[in-house]
Design a protein that fits this description.
Elements (H helix, E strand, L loop, with lengths): L1 H55 L4 H29 L6 H30 L6 H26 L21 H36 L7 H33 L7 H13 L5 H15 L11
Length: 305
């Protein structure tokens, strides 16, 4: 009987280990697929939008915003091959600093992109008009702040509180044992969720009023199309950024119970989902093509925001 019990326990352990391995393999495969899609689609979108901007030679406020998003997406896309290498080979081969930099880039990209989305949405909601020099000045200030302050500070502290194996990367969950890191994460989650919820409510209200005002020929009015474009940015935020932040709260509260690192992989999947926002450029190109075929609307990168 004792031998039979030991045999059953051993079989159960093997079965649970096999299940965990299969689950991890599926999550790794999902990560690879997501990053390949984002790398291919994002690169195509950046190239096509850059060509579109070069042909139109527009100098509007929207063009400056789009160029900033293009640069952000380009930096993030350059980091994806390093992530793919790690998930395909199962080993990090580029050193500890490159690991921290690659990991930090995805967060810098996410929050910088969100900041530009919010700026575009607010400018359209309030119908703000900016001179080009003012727009260039504040966009340049944002870039300088990010390059000279945020990025150095992040790289100075991110992933440095504990010693990690050189063959592993993107496993900085040990940082969550520090109270200030937990507080910072909760603050970022709270800010994004609140801002997104408020802007979504306001944007839906504005679109409803504009739709009722111009119904039924709403697509022929510039005001409705402008607000619809703003709603697109909100939808990107809801689809790409919100799931990661909602799961982040659960992950922070339960990471210490994550003995088989399954939650860590789920967190990586939600983080990979945030990079799908780089596909927005393909949507912009599709909008431009649709508008040119209809001959009924101004360019997405045309005058005004």
């Amino acid at each position: 009987v004792y031998k039979m019990l030991n045999s059953c326990i051993t079989q159960q352990n093997h079965s649970s280990n096999d299940t965990a391995l299969n689950s991890s393999e599926k999550l790794h495969t999902l990560l690879i697929v997501l990053y390949i899609i984002n790398l291919a689609g994002g690169t195509l979108g950046v190239i096509m939008m850059s060509r579109q901007l070069f042909q139109r030679r527009s100098q509007s406020v929207m063009t400056i915003m789009i160029i900033s998003l293009l640069v952000l997406h380009s930096f993030m896309l350059l980091s994806i091959p390093f992530r793919l290498s790690y998930y395909i080979l199962g080993e990090w081969k580029f050193g500890r600093f490159a690991c921290r930099l690659t990991s930090a880039i995805i967060y810098l990209h996410m929050y910088s992109t969100f900041a530009f989305y919010v700026a575009i949405i607010i400018a359209r909601l309030l119908r703000l008009e900016f001179r080009k020099c003012y727009t260039v000045a504040w966009v340049g200030a944002v870039w300088l702040l990010g390059a000279l302050v945020v990025t150095p500070v992040l790289l100075s502290y991110y992933g440095t509180s504990r010693t990690y194996r050189s063959s592993e990367c993107f496993q900085f969950h040990g940082e969550l044992q520090q109270a200030h890191m937990v507080i910072a994460n909760y603050c970022l989650v709270g800010i994004l969720v609140v801002v997104c919820a408020v802007l979504t409510g306001i944007q839906l209200t504005v679109i409803y009023r504009v739709a009722m005002k111009y119904w039924p020929d709403i697509n022929s009015h510039v005001e409705f199309r402008a607000q619809a474009k703003s709603l697109f940015f909100i939808l990107v935020t809801l689809v790409c950024f919100m799931p990661h932040h909602v799961f982040r709260v659960y992950y922070i509260q339960n990471y210490d119970l994550d003995k088989d690192h399954k939650l860590l992989l789920y967190n990586e999947v939600f983080l990979a989902l945030t990079t799908m926002c780089c596909l927005d450029m393909l949507c912009f190109i599709a909008g431009i093509v649709h508008c040119s075929q209809k001959s009924c609307c101004s360019s997405i990168t045309g005058s005004g925001v």
